[in-house]
């Protein structure tokens, strides 16, 4: 009996060992990308979380147009051509023919991509008769914060492969917004199929797009799995499989990179770059990126509704120390909310400097001579604009103690964190923004406009009609010089009012195994793995 | 007599489970925030939803009725929803517990296979160099914190030498349908081209966590087996056997072993509960997707329904394992059945 068992065991084990060619073939089967957080949703329309957009936007979907990262010109994607009318109030897109939506376990398309899909996708944002408008709280944070939902009057189907967007007024950033990672095209046929089976709630969780990869599975805190789209319209996809290993801890991500459990790692922290740089089998890329890391106050909540308190706090923190200890020299100290590479950038002379005595004086003026208790919400993940919010919060905590302000630091899991900040449950928060387009409006409207307050993007909870009017004026003209003037005014208004304190602009890092190629890091927008392959 | 014994054990089990459920129920009132949200996992924002929940949880009746309703839901597998993911806590636990069990079972297996023979060896060479070597090594293993051992092994075997991976149950590129939840069994059941490589990959992933987790029970079993053997070897019937001229091998194999292993069997059962606790630490360090890691994550995220569910599942499991271990032990040792009361 024993011998029989042994024999069975050994034959089954020998049967398990495969040949060498299969090992080689296996290597090119897939790529593991270590991501820093769970995706919030699988539809870029309903979230602005960078970690989510990195995972889904360029992998599963395509947009009508995109922006060339080098020349900053618009490029054709699903739209082969686009024309803006003379008054700027209507834009007509000619669509690409023969583009196929994904065939997945839950959906098989019966037709190619056409005008209906574009109309469905964008009417969801503003049309209350669209069956999906109210699904998921009718919250489209990016589009609402830049006002696209208020801008589009209607979308007209000219022909099967032509759509015309009619706008209420001409807006210079419209095309740029249509080129963001949020403006992806979804399948109308799939939406209608789900509606017929009364499963509309699945729409944002089980994605169907036209992108290079097809959704397979998602296990929370564990992985996201995509397979290649064999019918991708743009080019052949080399990788059979793309797996996101969800690893929130930055040190673990680096360690996994060293043990080759990850092929690509999101956001290695600058403190760890030197370890990675020592290895020949790991490439570290560094790219300037349009972003801003800031400290926002909940301006609706006392004592932060008092501008003197905000000024006091701004003068109490030593940003130079933060630059050294948190950014390790891989960042630029912010002189405005806009990064210096933006064309509308204007350095602000009166940006608060480190002056604890002045801070103390301002607190006394505000009637808080003994200081007060407050909390700083620190992001639990490292982002381009803030590699280590926890450490930054600790440095601030020790600085603020000197003027009598006692700080407690609060952390939550990333998606919970974003959600609660959106509900304005914080006193102050360390957060940031990485641009989706080179258009300067991308920094103002999503972060500080009144509509952004309602859509939960405006962490400062700050709504100033004068500021909004500046933004609207800037958008209503295409004259660059005029726009710059308005944005200058907007920048100095932020520094005077201080709903948030701009801290730094970070660099975007990425570590990948030396045998991986075809991953492009741009100055804005999410990462694309469409061309990724292993050598 | 035997039935009576089993009934007493079952009685004890039921009592412990009830106490545990009372404690878990109270937790939702002790945690910050709305008790109803903590119980159901639904952050009740609107009035209609709130009223509906109040009806379901008998929230307006007295605490006793609420507890009865709570018990009813627990028995039906309705353990509330997780704050963090919105999924059912019970189904998450069912998904995760096999990974923890798997790790614990392998570790226990390793510790029995290594621990018992080593213990016998140590006792056979009592006060000679093998015994001294084994005892001192055991002492080191016994006193070393397992998180430290885990980090050392990761430093050496994963980061320096690159022999073993440091996280997860297997390379994520293999897509294995979770049939039983036990990874090696699932791989064997699945049919796909790279089955053999997947199997080896899974073994690779298992190695370090299993070694780390097996360290403590192995050293305990070595010490225990050694003590037990020495005690038996000191008894009169062994002395008689030795006087009759049996050699050491014969003494151990035919007379001492059978008697000495009886308490060891009990110890193996008891080690299982320690293992589950240690498994949590191991899971955190090796990113093992089991219940321990999930529970710690839930604590970090202040996911109260998940914390309650996780605590209850783990405690239930430990109580269950201890009682089963004791029942098995009594099968081998009829004398112990005369104990009037059970112990947990």
TrEMBL record, chain A:
<feature type="domain" description="Solute-binding protein family 5">
    <location>
        <begin position="74"/>
        <end position="453"/>
    </location>
</feature>
<dbReference type="InterPro" id="IPR023765">
    <property type="entry name" value="SBP_5_CS"/>
</dbReference>
<keyword id="KW-0732">Signal</keyword>
<dbReference type="GO" id="GO:0015833">
    <property type="term" value="P:peptide transport"/>
</dbReference>
<dbReference type="GO" id="GO:0030288">
    <property type="term" value="C:outer membrane-bounded periplasmic space"/>
</dbReference>
<comment type="similarity">
    <text>Belongs to the bacterial solute-binding protein 5 family.</text>
</comment>
<dbReference type="GO" id="GO:1904680">
    <property type="term" value="F:peptide transmembrane transporter activity"/>
</dbReference>
<dbReference type="InterPro" id="IPR030678">
    <property type="entry name" value="Peptide/Ni-bd"/>
</dbReference>
<protein>
    <submittedName>
        <fullName>Dipeptide transport system substrate-binding protein</fullName>
    </submittedName>
</protein>
<dbReference type="InterPro" id="IPR039424">
    <property type="entry name" value="SBP_5"/>
</dbReference>
<dbReference type="Pfam" id="PF00496">
    <property type="entry name" value="SBP_bac_5"/>
</dbReference>
<dbReference type="GO" id="GO:0043190">
    <property type="term" value="C:ATP-binding cassette (ABC) transporter complex"/>
</dbReference>
<dbReference type="InterPro" id="IPR000914">
    <property type="entry name" value="SBP_5_dom"/>
</dbReference>
From TrEMBL, chain B:
<feature type="transmembrane region" description="Helical">
    <location>
        <begin position="206"/>
        <end position="224"/>
    </location>
</feature>
<feature type="transmembrane region" description="Helical">
    <location>
        <begin position="12"/>
        <end position="31"/>
    </location>
</feature>
<dbReference type="InterPro" id="IPR035906">
    <property type="entry name" value="MetI-like_sf"/>
</dbReference>
<dbReference type="Pfam" id="PF00528">
    <property type="entry name" value="BPD_transp_1"/>
</dbReference>
<feature type="transmembrane region" description="Helical">
    <location>
        <begin position="146"/>
        <end position="164"/>
    </location>
</feature>
<feature type="domain" description="ABC transmembrane type-1">
    <location>
        <begin position="97"/>
        <end position="329"/>
    </location>
</feature>
<dbReference type="GO" id="GO:0005886">
    <property type="term" value="C:plasma membrane"/>
</dbReference>
<dbReference type="GO" id="GO:0071916">
    <property type="term" value="F:dipeptide transmembrane transporter activity"/>
</dbReference>
<feature type="transmembrane region" description="Helical">
    <location>
        <begin position="311"/>
        <end position="332"/>
    </location>
</feature>
<comment type="similarity">
    <text>Belongs to the binding-protein-dependent transport system permease family. OppBC subfamily.</text>
</comment>
<keyword id="KW-0812">Transmembrane</keyword>
<keyword id="KW-1003">Cell membrane</keyword>
<keyword id="KW-1133">Transmembrane helix</keyword>
<feature type="transmembrane region" description="Helical">
    <location>
        <begin position="105"/>
        <end position="126"/>
    </location>
</feature>
<protein>
    <submittedName>
        <fullName>Dipeptide transport system permease protein</fullName>
    </submittedName>
</protein>
<feature type="transmembrane region" description="Helical">
    <location>
        <begin position="268"/>
        <end position="291"/>
    </location>
</feature>
<keyword id="KW-0997">Cell inner membrane</keyword>
<dbReference type="InterPro" id="IPR000515">
    <property type="entry name" value="MetI-like"/>
</dbReference>
<keyword id="KW-0472">Membrane</keyword>
<keyword id="KW-0813">Transport</keyword>
